[in-house]
TrEMBL record:
Lineage: Eukaryota, Fungi, Dikarya, Basidiomycota, Agaricomycotina
Species the sequence originates in: Cryptococcus depauperatus CBS 7841
Name assigned to this protein: Sister chromatid cohesion protein DCC1
InterPro entries referenced in this protein's UniProt entry, alphabetically: Dcc1
GO CC annotation terms, alphabetical: chromatin; chromosome, centromeric region; Ctf18 RFC-like complex
GO biological process per UniProt: DNA replication; maintenance of mitotic sister chromatid cohesion
Domain of life from the UniProt record: Eukaryota
Family of the protein in this entry: Belongs to the DCC1 family.
Length: 379
């Protein structure tokens, strides 16, 4: 930075008359955003999203930042050029008019996107299963059953505090598809019933591979009262269409079948019984993909695996989804250690999702380090 005095004089003036309620809020861009802004020849989008009651967040196309007001020791003057009636500076001297004096700025702090709101917003209009048709319905109120509000992707983008890239990934992880221009949440239990049919059809049409003719699958699903628009969306969510063939992501399908079984556990279930039921649901051809590794962060085992007492026949499985835990770090750690007094790093890591940016290992480790002395104990 050049600290030399300016080479020319500039006249600074306060407004002669009232400028009304005009005020300015200055935003300090971190290097992460500034580099992207400077590297773009066109307009670089910066968006503030959320509801009036939310803390303000700023979003780039692929990241989320919390906006926080901080005071500054040196006040900043917001000025505009002052011209006379001829479009020239008064008296031929460069003149600036002071429009505001700022004693604080907004800084941007990188944070995890608030993707849990997706389920909150879409749960009321969620898909109710094959027997109920394509669209979710409002529960009967009195003698009438009315349709719930169904959201478009644009409407979701305005209330979900996430970048477009983060939102796309969040919708995929939560099994949200777009059907007839509206977003539809596919709950685990109902989705399991549909995916077991898909696996059966895949076994029939795929032979030794994991691909099958797309039109044949959609036509077969229509016989199970699944509309072509929903079938196409589900196939796109759990695989990739290449030409006339659908290439299935079998591991992802098997995982969701397991999730559908897991969320139905009302209290506890023996691990070996659960695994046997899971294998039966997916069919013999796909049992090699069945693994509790796919359900990390969604369940607890008692006693934990490192215990000498732990075995497939003695371990008890409990449904414990990370999405049900508080988003506040202190409250989440408190609940985790209330549930289980001791954790290994491998066990607790899946339950910390959503507290930091995806892939931000340093941020996650900082959260753990703050609580290591009084909370974190390794077996």
């Amino acid at each position: 930075m050049n600290n030399a005095l300016p080479q020319k004089q500039v006249v600074m003036r306060f407004p002669r008359g009232s400028v009304g309620e005009e005020t300015f809020q200055l935003l300090e861009l971190p290097p992460e955003i500034l580099k992207q802004v400077e590297a773009n020849d066109s307009v670089f989008p910066l968006t503030i999203k959320g509801r009036p009651s939310d803390d303000a967040t700023l979003h780039t196309p692929n990241a989320t930042f919390q906006l926080r007001t901080i005071g500054i020791s040196n006040s900043l003057l917001v000025c505009i050029p002052l011209f006379d009636g001829t479009g020239s500076f008064p008296g031929g001297r460069e003149t600036l008019e002071i429009r505001d004096v700022c004693h604080e700025v907004l800084e941007c702090l990188p944070v995890a996107a608030n993707l849990e709101r997706i389920g909150t917003v879409l749960s009321a209009s969620a898909w109710e299963g094959i027997s109920e048709g394509v669209l979710g319905k409002r529960k009967r109120v009195g003698e009438e059953s009315k349709h719930m509000k169904r959201w478009t992707k644009e409407q979701l983008q305005s209330v979900i505090q996430a970048s477009d890239e983060e939102l796309e990934e969040g919708l995929r992880e939560r099994n949200v598809v777009e059907v007839d221009g509206k977003m539809l949440l596919l709950p685990p239990a109902e989705l399991k019933e549909l995916l077991t049919i898909v696996l059966c059809l895949l076994t029939v049409h795929a032979g030794a591979s994991s691909s099958a003719p797309t039109e044949a699958l959609i036509s077969s699903l229509e016989e199970h009262d699944v509309s072509p628009s929903l079938s196409a969306a589900v196939l796109g969510l759990f695989g990739e269409v290449q030409g006339d063939l659908w290439i299935a992501d079998v591991e992802r399908i098997v995982k969701q079948v397991g999730m559908g079984l897991l969320c139905k556990i009302k209290k506890n279930k023996r691990k070996d019984e659960f695994m046997a039921e899971w294998r039966e649901e997916v069919g013999e051809k796909w049992t090699e993909h069945v693994s509790l590794r796919l359900l990390q962060g969604e369940h607890l085992l008692d006693p934990p695996p490192p215990s000498a007492l732990a075995s497939s026949s003695s371990q008890i499985l409990r449904y414990y989804p990370f999405s049900s835990l508080p988003l506040n770090p202190s409250r989440r750690f408190a609940q985790l250690f209330q549930t289980r007094p001791r954790w290994t790093p491998e066990e607790i890591t899946p339950f910390l999702r959503g507290l930091t940016r995806e892939g931000d290992m340093k941020g996650r480790d900082k959260l753990v380090a703050k609580r290591r002395m009084n909370l974190f104990v390794v077996y």
